[in-house]
C-alpha cells in the first residue's frame, strides 16, 4: 500500500475524503491514506488558530509547510491564493492539482429582527466571514450582482458558531455560513437570504506523484457517487461538528452535493485567477504553468 | 373595462408568490377594514400551469397584465422591482398610460436556478456560455442576472425564452436547455422531480399605480397588505393552496416548501433605492437612460 498523508478540516468540504476512507475506496486503489484532522471554522469548539490573518500561519497551512501532510482541499479561490502566494513568498510549493469534489453550499444569513429581506439591503452592512476562506470568497460572488463592490463589507466574526452568536447580538448585519451551520441557523429561526453551491480545489506538494493523485481522485469520485446515493448515511460527520446543536432530521441533506474531481483547466484558471486578482485578493504575475499541475491525468 | 365605466379601484393578481399578501388581505377582510371596495383582476402569469402565451423578448407592453393596464382595466399592480422600473420608465417614454413606482412591495419572492439531476453542472460558474431559460424582462430574467453576475462575466451569461415555468422545467428535463430560473411553486416542483438547485435568492417586488389612484387609497391598500404580511410571517400554510393550485396537480400541499415564502411590510421607494436599481437596470440595457426619480417614483401613500 502506498502511504499518503492528506488533511481534513471541515466535513462539508472533506466528506468525499472521509467516505473514501470509511468505505475502503482508497484501499481498493492500493492507497493507505492517513487523514490529518486540523481545526476549522465549522467545528463547534474550534479556536482561532485556523483563522489567523496570515494564512500561512493557520493550522493546516503550518502542518503542510512542515511536511505533516501532502495534499489538501479548500474553496477554489482559497487554494488559488495559497498556490499563488506559496510560490511568490517562498513557502513549500502547493499547486492546484484538480477541481475538487465537494460543491459545498454557502448561505448569507440575517436575523429576522434586523428587517433585512433580500441581498440589496446589505448595502454597506457588515457581513461576518472567515477572511480568505470559502465564506469570504463566496460572499463576494453571491453579492456582486446585487451591490457595487465598494458596498460589500466583510468582517472577521470568528468560527461559524461564533458568527451566529455575533449575528444574534447585532454585532454584524449578516453572516456567511456553510453546512451544518446553515441548518443550525435555520433551526434557530434565522433567515437565509440567498445560497449557492460553490467549488473546491485540490492542492498537493510536488512530492505526490501523478499516479497516486489519480488513484486518490478515483476513490473520491467513487465516494461522491456513494454520498449522492445516500447522503444520510454520512451526515453524522456534519452533525458531530455542530456539537449537539443539530439533529440529523434538521440537516437539509439536499445541500450536500459532490462531483468527481476534474482537471483544472486553463480556461478555469484564467477566469478564477483574474477574478481573485481583480478583487485584490492575490498578487499579479502568476501563470497557469507555475500554479496548476494536472499530472493526475497525464 | 374602460376608465369611464369603472366604479371601484382595480387591483391586479397574477402569480400567487408575488401577490399572496393581496390575496390574504382580501380573504381576511383587511381591505374592507380599511374601507376599500376593490375589484381583483386576474391575468395569466408564467407560474400558472394553464398559461399558454409566449412573451416576446423585446416588448413588455403587449403582455396580458400590461395590456389590461394600458386599456384602463387595472389601476394598481406589482411585479419584480426591475420589471416595474422598466415599465414605469418606458411607459413614460413611449406615451403609454402613465404608471409610477409607488412603493417597495411586500413579497420577497425566491428565485432559483435549476439543472437536471444528472447534469454535469454543479455550481453557477459551470453555466458559462450555457442557456438559462427565463421570462424576458420579468423577475426570473432580472434575478438571474443578479445571481449570476458575481460568477460569470456578462458575455458568458446566456438567457433564453422557453415559455411558462412548467414549459421551461420540461425543457430542462428534456435537455433542451441547460438550466431554468424558477419561482415558487415551481422550485418545489423541480425539487420533487429531483432537479438540482444551484443557487437561490430572495428578491424584491415594487408596486405600480396609475396617477388616478389617490394617495389615501394606496395608503389603505398598503396598510392592508402589511397586515397580511404579519399573518403570513406567523404561518403561511393556510394560504399555500394558492400556489399549489397554480401547478395543476403537479404538487401536493405537503410537498410545497413553504419555508421559502418571505414577506415584509410595504415601504416607500427611496431615492437611494431608485439610484441603485435604475443604474443597474440601465447598465444591463434592460431599460432606457434619461429617467429621473421625480418622473418615475411617487411615494404619495406616505405624504
What's this, in brief?
The complex is a heterodimer of chains A (298) and B (303). By secondary structure, chain A is α/β, with parallel strands linked by helices.
The CATH class label of the largest domain in chain A is: Alpha Beta
Low-confidence stretches of chain A: none
What is the fold-level CATH name, i.e. the topology of the largest domain in chain B?
D-Maltodextrin-Binding Protein, domain 2
Largest interface: A-B, 27 and 31 residues
The percent range for helix content of chain B is 25-40%
CATH architectural type of the largest domain in chain A: 3-Layer(aba) Sandwich
- The CATH architecture of the largest domain in chain B is 3-Layer(aba) Sandwich
Tally of separate domains of chain B: 2
Round the Cα radius of gyration of chain B to an integer and report it.
19 Å
Report on this model:
The complex is a heterodimer of chains A (298) and B (303). Chain A is an alpha/beta fold and 298 residues long. Chain A folds into 2 domains: 2-103 and 199-297, 3-Layer(aba) Sandwich (D-Maltodextrin-Binding Protein, domain 2); 105-197, Periplasmic binding protein-like II (D-Maltodextrin-Binding Protein, domain 2), CATH 3.40.190.10. In chain A, 38% of the residues lie in helices and 18% in strands. Chain A has 12 helices and 10 strands. In chain A, α1 crosses α8. Chain A is globular and about 55 Å long. Chain B is an alpha/beta fold. Chain B has 2 domains: 10-108 and 204-302, D-Maltodextrin-Binding Protein, domain 2; 110-202, 3-Layer(aba) Sandwich (D-Maltodextrin-Binding Protein, domain 2). Chain B is built from 11 helices and 10 strands. In chain B, α1 (16-27) crosses α8. The longest helix of chain B has 20 residues, at 215-234. The chains are: A alpha/beta (298), B alpha/beta (303). β9 of chain A pairs antiparallel with β9 of chain B, so a sheet runs across the interface.
Amino acid at each position: 500500500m502506498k502511504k499518503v498523508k492528506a488533511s481534513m478540516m471541515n466535513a462539508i468540504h472533506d466528506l468525499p475524503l472521509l467516505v473514501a476512507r470509511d468505505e475502503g475506496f482508497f484501499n481498493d486503489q492500493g492507497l493507505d491514506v492517513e487523514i490529518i484532522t486540523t481545526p476549522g471554522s465549522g467545528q463547534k469548539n474550534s479556536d482561532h488558530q485556523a483563522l489567523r490573518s496570515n494564512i500561512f500561519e493557520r493550522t493546516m497551512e503550518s502542518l503542510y509547510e512542515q511536511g505533516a501532510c501532502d495534499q489538501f482541499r479548500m474553496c477554489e479561490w482559497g487554494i488559488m491564493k495559497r498556490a499563488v502566494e506559496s510560490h511568490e513568498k517562498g513557502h513549500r510549493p502547493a499547486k492546484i492539482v484538480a477541481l475538487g469534489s465537494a460543491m459545498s453550499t454557502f448561505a448569507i444569513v440575517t436575523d429576522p429582527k434586523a428587517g433585512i429581506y433580500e441581498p440589496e439591503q446589505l448595502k454597506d452592512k457588515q457581513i461576518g466571514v472567515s477572511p480568505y476562506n470559502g465564506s469570504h470568497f463566496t460572499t463576494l460572488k453571491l453579492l456582486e450582482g446585487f451591490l457595487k463592490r465598494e458596498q460589500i463589507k466583510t468582517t472577521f466574526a470568528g468560527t461559524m458558531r461564533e458568527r451566529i452568536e455575533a449575528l444574534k447580538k447585532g454585532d454584524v448585519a449578516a453572516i456567511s455560513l456553510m453546512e451544518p451551520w446553515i441548518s443550525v441557523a435555520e433551526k434557530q429561526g434565522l433567515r437565509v437570504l440567498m445560497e449557492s453551491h460553490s467549488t473546491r480545489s485540490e492542492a498537493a506538494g510536488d512530492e505526490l506523484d501523478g499516479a497516486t493523485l489519480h488513484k486518490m481522485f478515483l476513490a473520491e469520485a467513487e465516494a461522491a457517487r456513494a454520498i449522492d446515493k445516500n447522503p444520510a448515511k454520512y451526515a453524522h460527520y456534519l452533525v458531530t461538528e455542530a456539537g449537539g446543536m443539530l439533529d440529523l432530521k434538521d440537516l437539509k441533506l439536499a445541500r450536500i452535493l459532490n462531483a468527481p474531481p476534474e482537471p483544472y483547466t486553463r480556461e478555469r484558471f484564467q477566469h478564477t485567477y483574474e477574478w481573485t486578482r481583480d478583487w485584490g485578493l492575490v498578487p499579479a504575475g502568476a501563470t497557469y504553468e507555475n500554479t496548476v499541475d494536472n499530472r493526475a491525468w497525464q | 373595462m374602460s376608465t369611464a365605466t369603472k366604479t371601484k379601484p382595480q387591483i391586479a393578481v397574477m402569480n400567487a408568490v408575488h401577490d399572496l399578501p393581496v390575496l390574504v388581505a382580501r380573504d381576511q377582510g383587511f381591505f374592507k377594514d380599511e374601507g376599500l371596495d376593490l375589484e381583483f383582476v386576474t391575468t395569466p402569469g408564467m407560474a400558472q400551469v394553464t398559461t399558454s402565451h409566449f412573451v416576446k423578448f423585446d416588448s413588455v407592453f403587449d403582455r396580458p397584465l400590461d395590456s389590461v393596464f394600458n386599456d384602463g382595466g387595472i389601476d394598481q399592480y406589482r411585479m419584480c422591482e426591475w420589471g416595474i422600473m422598466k415599465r414605469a420608465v418606458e411607459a413614460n417614454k413611449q406615451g403609454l398610460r402613465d404608471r409610477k413606482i409607488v412603493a417597495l412591495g411586500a413579497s420577497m419572492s425566491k428565485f432559483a436556478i435549476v439543472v437536471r439531476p444528472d447534469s454535469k453542472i454543479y455550481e453557477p460558474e459551470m453555466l458559462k456560455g450555457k442557456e438559462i431559460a427565463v421570462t424576458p424582462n420579468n423577475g426570473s430574467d432580472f434575478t438571474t442576472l443578479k445571481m449570476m453576475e458575481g460568477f460569470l462575466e456578462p458575455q458568458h451569461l446566456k438567457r433564453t425564452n422557453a415559455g411558462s415555468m412548467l414549459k421551461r422545467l420540461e425543457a430542462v428535463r428534456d435537455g433542451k436547455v441547460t438550466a431554468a430560473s424558477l419561482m415558487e411553486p415551481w422550485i418545489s416542483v423541480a425539487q420533487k422531480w429531483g432537479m438540482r438547485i444551484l443557487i437561490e435568492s430572495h428578491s424584491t417586488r415594487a408596486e405600480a399605480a396609475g396617477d388616478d389612484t389617490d394617495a389615501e387609497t394606496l395608503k389603505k391598500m398598503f396598510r392592508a397588505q402589511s397586515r397580511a404580511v404579519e399573518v403570513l410571517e406567523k404561518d403561511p400554510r393556510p394560504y399555500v393552496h394558492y400556489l399549489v393550485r397554480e401547478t395543476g396537480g403537479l404538487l401536493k400541499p405537503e410537498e410545497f416548501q413553504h419555508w421559502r415564502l418571505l414577506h415584509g411590510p410595504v415601504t416607500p421607494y427611496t431615492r437611494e433605492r431608485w439610484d441603485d436599481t435604475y443604474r443597474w437596470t440601465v447598465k444591463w440595457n434592460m431599460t432606457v437612460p434619461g429617467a429621473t426619480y421625480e418622473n418615475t417614483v411617487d411615494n404619495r401613500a406616505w405624504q
